[in-house]
């Protein structure tokens, strides 16, 4: 090799089965590129290396049995005051089985205290369990986030709804690696009596697309309903002639159908402003600022909660330990504000003076 600067464009094809990079307490998956110069005998070889991160996306839509909520229930009997016994029934559920970083896990817990003693505080935690497959498997358990609720009084039934924000985490499965296994689950527990249940979930890179797997009620489209209704209201001609006597012929022609009212046709045009009395239909947000419940049900990113007083989130989350009370805040009152949209005016009128009259329809078309 002659003296000077030389460039060699080497290329490598990464196998499709290569697992995602991972680094844990008892094992890691790393990738690096090493370059070296093979010198003659009795000379020193020169080498250097560069590490890089490999990400193999986990599409949650391809995970089997991923649709629907994850629920579990447990019944626990306990003894208190040395002689008395009681029963606690706890049911827990998450809204989905798969999440991506930045989404919110909505946890619903129902507890029925069938005893004469108040229970301890309720709690929910997002847990990570990493299994290292060796001759003797090693387990690494870590708490990612933790929230805490209240108590349930004696003989009462209570429902607790909480939200846990999913931070930046490795994906659940490392495809192509049989030595490291990553699992996530939500642990719901009750202190005094000691009651616990787990709800397994998946953490991926591509979120669930509900349009790809609609509900069973959505299979019957509006066009199908219209065809079924038309078939019931207007039977075929042969069926009508068989059940009803033939009608006498009329000398006058049949009048043409009347045109629809003008107000119905206006619904096909996009108005620049809503009508005065806008009918309230199903769906959509309320306009009076009231909310049916105190907690939000949308899956939003952590940056959307920065407006809450005393609660702020940074763009880069540091993995320094469990997050306490990582729940979504209540929506602020009177937070809805309307922004007037600009009216669509002809170009001549917009560029002219405000006191000039707008051009006519013919002038706008001929311009």
UniProtKB/TrEMBL annotation:
Q: State the species of origin.
A: Betta splendens
Name the Gene3D superfamilies for this protein: 2.60.40.640
InterPro entries, A to Z: Arrestin-like_C, Arrestin-like_N, Arrestin_C-like, Arrestin_domain-protein, Ig_E-set
Q: Name one GO cellular component term.
A: cytoplasm
Q: What is this protein called?
A: Arrestin domain-containing protein 1a isoform X2
Sequence ranges of Polar residues compositional bias? 238-247, 284-304
- SMART domains (alphabetical): Arrestin_C
One GO term in the molecular function aspect is:
ubiquitin-like ligase-substrate adaptor activity
Instruction: Tell me which domain of life the UniProt entry assigns to the organism this sequence originates from.
Output: Eukaryota
Name the residue ranges with Low complexity bias: 248-267
What family classification does the UniProt entry report for this protein?
Belongs to the arrestin family.
Q: Which residues form the Arrestin C-terminal-like domain?
A: 84-208
Coiled-coil-forming residues are none
Per the UniProt record, one Pfam family is Arrestin_C
Q: Where is this region: Disordered?
A: 234-367
A GO term (biological process) for this protein? nervous system development
According to the record, the signal peptide region is: none
């Amino acid at each position: 090799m002659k003296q000077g600067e030389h460039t060699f464009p080497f290329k490598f094809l990464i196998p499709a089965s290569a697992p995602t990079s991972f680094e844990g307490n008892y094992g890691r998956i790393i990738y690096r590129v090493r370059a070296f110069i093979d010198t003659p005998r009795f000379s020193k070889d020169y080498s250097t290396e560069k590490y890089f991160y490999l990400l193999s996306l986990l599409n949650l839509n391809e995970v089997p049995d991923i649709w629907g909520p994850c629920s579990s229930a447990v019944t626990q009997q306990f003894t208190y005051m040395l002689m008395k016994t009681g029963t606690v029934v706890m049911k827990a559920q998450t809204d989905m089985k798969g999440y991506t970083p930045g989404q919110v896990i909505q946890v619903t817990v129902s507890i029925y205290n069938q005893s004469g003693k108040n229970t301890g505080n309720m709690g929910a935690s997002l847990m990570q369990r990493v299994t290292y497959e060796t001759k003797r498997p090693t387990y690494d358990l870590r708490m990612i986030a933790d929230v805490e609720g209240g108590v349930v009084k004696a003989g009462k039934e209570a429902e607790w709804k909480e939200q846990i924000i999913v931070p930046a985490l490795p994906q659940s499965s490392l495809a192509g690696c049989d030595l490291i296994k990553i699992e996530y689950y939500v642990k719901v527990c009750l202190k005094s009596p000691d009651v616990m249940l787990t709800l397994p979930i998946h953490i991926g890179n591509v979120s669930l697309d509900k349009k790809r797997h609609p509900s069973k009620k959505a299979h019957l489209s509006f066009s199908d309903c219209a065809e079924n209704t038309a078939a019931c209201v207007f039977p075929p001609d042969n069926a009508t002639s068989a059940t009803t006597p033939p009608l006498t012929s009329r000398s006058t022609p049949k009048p043409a159908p009347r045109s629809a009212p003008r107000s119905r046709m206006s619904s096909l045009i996009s108005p620049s402003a809503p009508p005065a009395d806008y009918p309230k239909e199903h769906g959509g947000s309320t306009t009076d600022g009231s909310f049916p419940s105190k907690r939000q049900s949308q899956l939003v990113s952590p940056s959307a909660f920065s407006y809450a007083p005393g609660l702020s989130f940074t763009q880069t989350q540091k993995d320094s330990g469990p997050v306490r009370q990582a729940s979504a805040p209540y929506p602020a009152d009177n937070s809805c504000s309307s922004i007037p949209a600009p009216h669509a005016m002809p170009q001549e009128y917009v560029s002219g003076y405000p006191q000039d009259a707008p051009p006519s329809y013919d002038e706008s078309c001929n311009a």
